[in-house]
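Morning F.,

Quick status update on the modeling queue. The single chain you submitted on Monday has been processed. Sequence for confirmation:
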Amino acid sequence: MEPVWQIPRPALFWLLFTVVALAGLHADHLTPWLLGAGALVLAWRVQIYRGVWRYPGRWAKAVLVLMCGGAILASYGRLYGLEPMVALLWSGFILKLLEMQRRRDALILVCLGYFVAVTQCLFSQTPGTALATLGGVLLVTVVLAALHRRAEAGYWRPMGTAALLLAEAVPLMLILFLVMPRLGSLWTVPQPRQGAIGVSDVLAPGDLSRLGASGEVAFRVKFDGAPPPHNQLYWRGLVLSRFDGRNWSRIEPARHPGTAPQSPDLSVERRGAPVHYQMILEPSGENWLFALETPVPESPEVTLNDDLTLTRATPVASRWSHSLTSWMDYRAAAGGLGDGRRALETALPGAANPRTRELAARWRGEVDSDAALVERVLALYNSDYVYSLEAPLLGRDSVDEFLWRTKRGFCEHFASSFVFILRAAGVPARVVVGYQGGEYHPDAGYLTVHQYDAHAWAEVWLAGRGWVRVDPTAAVAPERIETSVADLLGGEQAFLADSPLSLVRFRGIRWLDRLRLQLDYYDYLWAQWVLGYEYRQERLLTGWLGAWDPWRLGFFILGAGALALLPVLLGQLRLARRRPRPALERLFERYCQQLARRGITRAQGEAPRALAERVARERPALGADATVISALLEEGMYGGGKPDLADLRRRIRRLG
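Structure tokens below.
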């Protein structure tokens, strides 16, 4: 019989296997030296098991702890933050493995293992991540089950026990997920934007064309009714009004909690039918949001800026869902611009791009209105300009070089040069960046916007009309506005260059395209019903419980939890009745029944030896047989012996 403190061999095997699996889960987030340290600790642990190496002493363990802490500080530059804290947790996990000697040490490792497994969800919340995390939790539970079994139980029985435990927890988990209020954390762990891809608040020639190399999803949209036409899907994100000769950047807008900006320069008149929709955004690490024109947010976390863009109180560090209403027929600042705003939206630096300035001055004198000047500039792009992701690099006078030398560019080249010409002619204009279009899934009824849908266009202020959207790209490649970048530029080498295995590349193969759309649909359902469930929870609870009340909610959770656990309890009782009792227990019960027929009833808790002594006193004729039977029963039940069951049955039968 193994000591109670000893770690069973199957438990040690599953523990080492679980460490390897958890290392694979976090391979993208841990530095190579941390993964290497885990491999060394595993090798050391195996050598300890083989009796080749010894456990590390106190000083050795102290040195290892200091080395890990110093290496984390050197790798991340800090100990506070998501990635360094996860690295610190991983270091403690693997170092504890090195000093594990007793069963209680292994139980501590199990507790740490649960935390290591679920921290994967801090970095990603996709269905694949959820399944991988569930697999990690299952393996840790296998270790827990193996620690409570003898080694003779084998290697695979703990797997069945762990699977049964998790299956029994599913009903209660679902109840808690559906009804438990979402409480904000007591603190937040900042997550760096490292590796995030998306629109930036600084726009230089070539920035958006680089996004054409990415097939990542930016956001998904579900409309309440039919979606607007593709050529009206302009997802405004940032308004860029400052130009330094090469880069466009934004001026921090004023934010307002209401539905309309307070600036007199940006009074809004919304007209026509509103468009209601829900957006599910992918993590961007930024706090600016995207929406159709003149949006009104429903979430209290979102504020409307005075340039009609949206800002969230905190950066979008994980998938996030919110609802909006937009009026695509509107007039903004139609009453006029103040002197300060006009000066801001016509400002140009120095004397760069002289040829373009000369052209703008000449055209200014040849037309009689700003609208006519806009048409003249758009006509320029109808000549021999080429819309392409593969635009050549531009020098200091980027607008002059693009307009008169290269004549090849992506949307930011056309938007930047268009706004420059208008500003040089004294017309207020600015660059807007965001996304245009998207891929509509007619069967599922939602729209997916990818990073390669990133787009830049212009807004021009015209007297009596206010700010008007003008897209110079539509003058060069109107099919870009009617379809998508994937359809128009899918054959270029730069398209999806960073995503060589993206299924978008194979959209011409029908079955692969169906597979891509189906996988995207599953991801959308996960984001909508699991990650975005918080926004439906209040409506659901109101339908179930009526007016919200903490006591009513508490009793509902208790009742629902009891109902969820009832099948588990009934199943365990039924299993217990079905499970055959050991043969010695059945023989002991038969022995007591035979004695009861002779008038000797066993007292509760009376051991076989004490029962035999009482039989010898009360019925001396049965004393010898009772003493032998009780000795055999005690040896088999408590002493680890294996008495002859057939002989024991015969002796008990003779008592009757």
